[in-house]
């Protein structure tokens, strides 16, 4: 027995010794191989090509100049794969250099696309999944990825309503599916939801993003159930690859200016306005004129003028610096990056800084287990007092900026007190800070590597935790003419936990391919906030740092808890790469709903037919490379309400009884509803994917229709109930539309290429029902048969002229009309202008939009030109409207004219405060075509880069929002424009900010 045991250990030791010796021999033979990958037709370097050692887990990717480095022994087979190119295998010889030219592939459909809880080959996708072009994700000076997507994906409408540094654009996918709920898409980053954690797309550094997919149709989004009714954006960040460590630096710096300058009237023209206003109102000017106000007199006498827009505006700057480190071994890979983004706004005080850190890791501790992280930290800083652009545009050039003691005047046009000094709040020092700490991880077991019969069976556990605190501290004292002092400290935080159990199984039997995905997930979000306000301070020394010194103090606090539970199953079936079916069902439960309807079920079905793989298409192979028909139908949901909204809650109050103050409870005005159900959106989608002539022409055409019912609306209640309103399931909304994407490779030569990408989308939104009685809701401007957002107003037909008033033309039409007033159509013919003459004039959402991208490449030089267009939108124009009596009391844009008895304008009204007594909103077309961005880049040839010790070097210059063609009078048809506020602080209009144009120079380097 002892001898047998000894022999066993002797043999085991010998086997182990041989294995170690063999391994060391292989390691000794593995040497560093370098090379460069190019396009066989054009000779252009290919970035992002995956290079792997066949039969191992050793992989890497090519840099911007097509270069790569990998460890491989002589005789090993290197496999080169890239989207749009045929796979190529090369046996490593004795040399250390491996240069490879890849041929364009006729089968781009083998590309893997992220579809939610996994990925699929593009040829097997049955739903509507759009991939954002990778060139949009680099070489663009953007703060968040949505700005790069804008206009580049069909029927993804991204509206940059604010260019304030750090603001996030609004996004809609295929129209408005709700009348009261949020309409933004659901954003998922590396499998963990970002939406509904209080996180922002600004938290995700664009330099860290590898790919972006957008799920649009009901079949694609149904896998996210209640979260998918407004589309889903899936973001995948970069991960490490095996090989020697690579350091990448990406940075740019540039300047910003207004994309369009809204110049005010000249001093001479303003004096004419003052004179005309004095004539109309029969008032006298200060000291007999020509200025209107006391504080203007001295400057006028001395010939001193101030350019107030120049006083509040400045040349903005923008910069970004990112350093990434990636690499790893066969069993451990990492990607780490640090990033700084800084922006000094074009309006003083609008500054923004972001600091971020990301660590993505993947480890294979055993052959059947993989674990990893996708963790990041982001810090946002928006500190500083801000100037007010709206107030600056209203200032007279003769207005007084400073008092004799050097302090800013409160009202520069005193005795006019409608407009405060636009620089007042630059003297304050508010803090606006926000953080996002997200620690996400996963563990995946491959049961096939444990027991061969279980091949294809995997279990993945995703865990996510996000902690998002934010705070705002501010103080207003003597510098803003608050003589009592007012301070505020606001703190809020949310903590979100996500846990997902995902089971997948893949099996191929002959020509049949199956895969199953099962999900069981739970999520919890806890939110709390506290606010302390103090008034009447003894001095301004400590500002908000000592609220306890205030004589009057108020403290409020609140908290809530949200929980959800979800189950999902998806089955994909494919036969012979010709016929594909997808069945999905998801069940979601959320704490926001009452006990009778906690859960909702959301099913979907989709089918696809790869027609080009049929035998009868064999004769078209030289022409048709891809022809696929897709059809899908599904249901998704929307929570639409906040926590505790289905409950009848009570407020506490103090009640005087018996000479004492007693606590009393009373119901809130919102009545509970135990039977409230989910909003549900059912939709149909059909699409055709095609590729022609070696994929020289390729694209997608899709038609869709969605119907949302059981919408969540607050219904008014009779007063006798004791409640004001209740959440109820009412109303229906429908959307129909078309998406078109077309890509062409117009010229493909050895040293020159020209490609074009076109996207077009049209969406028609319609309210089908509101309250079930077939009646419109005039107060909310909701009209059955029309879009959710409309302009409902009078019809302007001109300006009343003096001879018309003298001839009595206005009699039996508009008895109150006077010369210079807006002439409105009496549409109902009742002889008066009233609400019966209002009509729907247009919709606020665009009827269609599109994008055109042309890319020209000559050797290592590339030029990319992108044009965006938005058509069919109508908006009320506050610059033209304004307050009825303000035009003669303030400066205004030079483009804005006015009626006088001499010029007899039929477009512009007079300066009289009775020139628009009916409150006409002056709607204008908000359509525009914009030269969105132009980028010129140059990649340093690999031999030159190698000589200076670099792996890849790309330099580029880029300009954004370079020119806009539009008839809109204002800063920009997209930009937010809030009329003057009616408080001293003018908080609302302080968020107005022009669209910006920027020019940057950038550098991407791989070491």
Can you tell me about this structure?
The chain has about 1000 residues and is mainly beta. Among the domains are: about 30-100, Immunoglobulin-like, CATH 2.60.40; about 110-240, Beta Complex (Ferric Hydroxamate Uptake Protein, Chain A, domain 1), CATH 2.170.130.10; about 265-305 and about 390-425, no CATH class; about 790-845 and about 880-920, no CATH class. The chain contains 10 helices and 49 strands. The strands form 11 sheets. The chain has a 22-stranded antiparallel barrel. Strands 10-15-16-13-14 form a 5-stranded mixed beta sheet, with no helix packed on it. A hairpin with an 8-residue loop joins strand 27 and strand 28. The protein is globular. The two termini are about 60 Å apart. Mean pLDDT is about 85; it is low at about 1-30 and about 980-985.
List the helices and strands and how they pair.
Blueprint: H1 2-29, E1 31-39, E2 50-53, E3 59-61, E4 67-72, E5 77-81, E6 88-91, E7 100-102, E8 112-114, E9 119-121, E10 129-131, H2 145-149, E11 156-159, E12 170-173, E13 186-189, E14 192-193, E15 209-215, H3 218-221, E16 232-237, E17 243-258, H4 267-281, H5 294-301, H6 308-312, E18 316-328, E19 332-344, E20 351-366, E21 369-381, H7 389-394, E22 431-446, E23 457-476, E24 486-509, E25 512-535, E26 552-575, E27 579-590, E28 599-610, E29 624-638, E30 650-657, E31 660-667, E32 670-671, E33 679-692, E34 697-709, E35 712-716, E36 725-729, E37 732-748, E38 752-769, E39 790-793, E40 796-799, H8 802-807, E41 822-824, E42 839-843, E43 848-858, E44 861-871, E45 874-876, H9 878-881, E46 923-925, E47 928-939, H10 942-947, E48 952-966, E49 996-1006
Parallel strand pairs: 1-7, 13-16, 32-36
Antiparallel strand pairs: 1-4, 2-3, 2-5, 5-6, 8-9, 10-15, 11-12, 13-14, 15-16, 17-18, 17-49, 18-19, 19-20, 20-21, 21-22, 22-23, 23-24, 24-25, 25-26, 26-27, 27-28, 28-29, 29-33, 30-31, 33-34, 34-37, 35-36, 37-38, 38-43, 39-42, 40-41, 43-44, 44-47, 45-46, 47-48, 48-49
């Amino acid at each position: 027995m002892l001898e047998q045991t000894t022999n066993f250990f002797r043999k085991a030791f010998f086997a182990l010794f041989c294995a170690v010796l063999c391994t060391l021999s292989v390691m000794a033979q593995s040497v560093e191989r370098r090379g460069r990958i190019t396009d066989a037709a054009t000779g252009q370097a290919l970035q992002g090509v995956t290079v792997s050692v066949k039969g191992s887990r050793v992989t890497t990717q090519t840099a911007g100049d097509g270069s790569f480095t990998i460890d491989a022994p002589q005789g090993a087979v290197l496999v080169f794969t890239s989207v749009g190119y045929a796979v190529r295998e090369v046996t490593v010889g004795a040399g250390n250099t491996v240069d490879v030219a890849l041929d364009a592939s006729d089968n781009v459909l083998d590309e893997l696309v992220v579809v939610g809880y996994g990925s699929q080959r593009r040829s097997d996708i049955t739903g509507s999944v759009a991939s954002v072009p990778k060139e949009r994700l680099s070489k663009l000076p953007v703060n968040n990825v949505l700005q790069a997507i804008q206009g580049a994906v069909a029927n993804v409408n991204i509206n940059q309503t604010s260019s304030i540094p750090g603001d996030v654009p609004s996004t809609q996918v295929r129209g408005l599916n709700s009348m009261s709920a949020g309409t933004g898409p659901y954003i998922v980053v590396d499998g963990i939801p970002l939406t509904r954690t209080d996180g922002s797309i600004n938290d995700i550094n664009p330099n860290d993003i590898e790919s972006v997919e957008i799920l649009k149709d009901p079949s694609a989004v149904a896998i996210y159930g209640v979260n998918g009714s407004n589309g889903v954006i899936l973001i995948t960040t970069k991960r490490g690859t095996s090989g020697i460590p690579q350091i990448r630096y990406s940075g740019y710096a540039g300047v910003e200016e207004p994309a369009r300058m809204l110049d005010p009237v000249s001093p001479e023209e303003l004096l004419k306005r003052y004179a005309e206003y004095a004539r109309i109102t029969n008032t006298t000017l200060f000291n007999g004129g020509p200025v209107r106000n006391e504080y203007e007199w001295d400057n006028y006498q001395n010939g001193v003028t101030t350019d107030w827009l120049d006083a509040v505006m400045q040349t903005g700057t923008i910069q970004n610096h990112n350093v990434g480190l990636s690499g790893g071994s066969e069993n451990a890979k990492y990607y780490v990056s640090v990033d700084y983004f800084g922006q000094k706004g074009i309006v003083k005080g609008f500054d923004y800084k972001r600091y971020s850190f990301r660590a993505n890791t993947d480890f294979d501790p055993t052959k059947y287990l993989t674990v990893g992280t996708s963790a990041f930290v982001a810090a946002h800083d928006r500190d500083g007092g801000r100037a007010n652009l709206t107030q600056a545009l209203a200032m007279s050039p003769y207005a007084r900026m400073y008092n004799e003691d050097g302090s800013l005047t409160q009202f520069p046009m005193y005795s006019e007190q409608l407009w405060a000094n636009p620089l007042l709040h630059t003297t304050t020092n508010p803090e606006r800070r926000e953080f996002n700490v997200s620690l996400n991880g996963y563990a995946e077991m491959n049961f096939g590597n444990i027991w061969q019969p279980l091949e294809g069976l995997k279990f993945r556990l995703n865990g996510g935790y996000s902690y998002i605190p934010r705070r705002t501290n501010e103080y207003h004292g003597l510098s803003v003419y608050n003589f009592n002092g007012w301070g505020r400290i606001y703190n809020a935080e949310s903590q979100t936990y996500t846990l997902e159990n995902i089971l997948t199984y893949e099996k191929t039997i002959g020509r049949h391919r199956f895969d199953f995905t099962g999900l069981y997930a739970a999520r919890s979000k806890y939110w709390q906030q506290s606010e302390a306000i103090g008034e009447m301070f003894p001095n301004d020394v400590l500002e908000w740092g000592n609220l306890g010194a205030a004589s009057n103090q108020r403290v409020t606090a609140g908290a809530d808890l949200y929980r959800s539970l979800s189950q999902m199953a998806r089955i994909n079936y494919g036969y012979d790469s010709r016929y594909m079916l997808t069945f999905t069902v998801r069940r979601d439960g959320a704490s926001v709903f009452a006990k009778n309807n906690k859960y909702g079920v959301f099913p979907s079905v989709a089918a696809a037919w790869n027609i080009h793989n049929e035998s009868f298409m064999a004769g078209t192979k030289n022409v048709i490379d891809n022809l696929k028909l897709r059809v899908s139908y599904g249901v998704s949901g929307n929570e639409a309400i906040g926590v505790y909204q289905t409950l009848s809650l009570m407020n506490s109050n103090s009640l005087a009884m018996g000479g004492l103050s007693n606590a009393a409870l009373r119901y809130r005005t919102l009545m509970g509803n135990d039977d409230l159900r989910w909003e549900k959106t059912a939709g149909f989608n059909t699409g055709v994917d095609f590729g022609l002539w070696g994929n020289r022409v390729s694209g997608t055409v899709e038609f869709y229709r969605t119907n949302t019912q059981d919408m969540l609306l607050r219904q008014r209640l009779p007063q006798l109930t004791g409640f004001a309103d209740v959440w109820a399931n009412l109303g229906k909304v429908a959307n129909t539309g078309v998406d078109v994407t077309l890509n062409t490779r117009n010229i493909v030569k050895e040293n020159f290429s020209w490609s074009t990408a076109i996207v077009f989308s049209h969406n028609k939104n319609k309210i089908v029902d509101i309250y079930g009685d077939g009646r419109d809701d005039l107060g909310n401007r909701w009209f059955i048969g029309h879009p959710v957002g409309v302009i409902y107003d009078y019809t302007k037909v001109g300006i009343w002229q003096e001879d018309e008033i003298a001839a009595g033309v206005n009699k039996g039409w508009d008895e109150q009309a006077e010369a210079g007033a807006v002439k409105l159509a009496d549409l109902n013919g009742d002889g008066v202008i009233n609400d019966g003459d209002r009509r729907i004039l247009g919709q606020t959402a665009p009827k269609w939009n599109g994008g055109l991208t042309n890319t020209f490449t000559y050797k290592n030089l590339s030029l990319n030109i992108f044009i965006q267009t938005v058509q069919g939108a109508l908006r009320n124009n506050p610059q033209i409207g304004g307050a009825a009596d303000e035009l003669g009391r303030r400066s205004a844009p030079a483009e804005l004219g006015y009626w006088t008895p001499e010029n007899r304008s039929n477009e512009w009204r007079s300066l009289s405060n009775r020139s628009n007594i009916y409150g006409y909103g002056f709607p204008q077309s908000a359509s525009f075509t914009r030269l969105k961005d132009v980028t010129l880049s140059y990649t340093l040839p690999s031999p030159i880069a190698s000589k200076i010790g670099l792996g890849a070097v790309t330099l580029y210059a880029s300009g954004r929002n370079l020119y806009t063609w539009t008839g809109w009078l204002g800063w920009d048809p997209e930009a937010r424009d809030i009329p003057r506020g009616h408080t001293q602080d003018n908080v609302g209009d302080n968020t107005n900010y022009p669209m910006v144009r920027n020019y940057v120079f950038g550098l991407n380097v791989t070491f």
